[in-house]
Amino acid sequence: DGSVVTWGSHRCGGDSSFVSDQLRGVQQVEATAGAFAAIRKDGSVVTWGAADFGGDSSEVQDQLKNVRQIQGSLQAFAAVLENGSVVTWGSHRYGGDSSKVQPELLLVRKLKASPFAFAAILADGSVATWGDPDYGGDSSLVQDQLKNVQAIQGTR
């Protein structure tokens, strides 16, 4: 029935009892180092766990509709919506703030996370990155080589 059962540290999302009534019809669950995000069949998102690890999506909850994919870094989440746009939340250092590249984050085909950053393959085959610049969040030095990209992977 798409329900979710959790256990472990309360601080890190092991106790989902306060959102358990929302954890039905779940299609995908993604994690950071201390929180979880679940996509429901209706495209909505439920989050729980440590707020500073992305467990509190209240600031962007109204944007988390028609979500098709979620990825998590160590302390942030990024969600791709059906229209190809991206919504981020969690620690800014770990990619929870995508404002610098938000104008580029249209028609995202695929999203990948590393521990400190995110990378998105766009419809034209280019790549947009954000997060900690020392750990993959800044691809400016190789941007001219990031054309017709089919797949992308980060370290974990």
Oligomer state of the chains in this structure: single chain
Helix content: under 10%
What distance lies between the first and last C-alpha atoms, to the nearest angstrom? Answer: 31 Å
Low-confidence stretches: none
> What percentage of the residues does DSSP assign to strands (E)?
25-35%
Mean pLDDT: 95
Category from helices, strands and their pairing: mainly beta
What is the general shape? globular
Main sheet overview? 3 strands, antiparallel
Q: Please, how many helices?
A: 0
Cα gyration radius (Å):
15 Å
Describe the protein.
The protein has strands at 26-31, 35-40, 45-49, 67-72, 76-81, 86-90, 108-113, 117-122, 127-131. It has 156 residues and is mainly beta. A 3-stranded antiparallel beta sheet has the order 1-2-3, with no helix packed on it. The chain has a 3-stranded antiparallel beta sheet with strand order 4-5-6, with no helix packed on it. Strands 7-8-9 form a 3-stranded antiparallel beta sheet, with no helix packed on it. The termini are far apart.
Kindly list the characteristics that best describe this protein.
156 residues; mainly beta; 3-stranded antiparallel beta sheet; 0% helix; globular
Helix and strand topology:
Elements: E1 26-31, E2 35-40, E3 45-49, E4 67-72, E5 76-81, E6 86-90, E7 108-113, E8 117-122, E9 127-131
Q: Quick gist of this model?
A:
This protein is mainly β and 156 residues long. It is 0% helix and 33% strand.
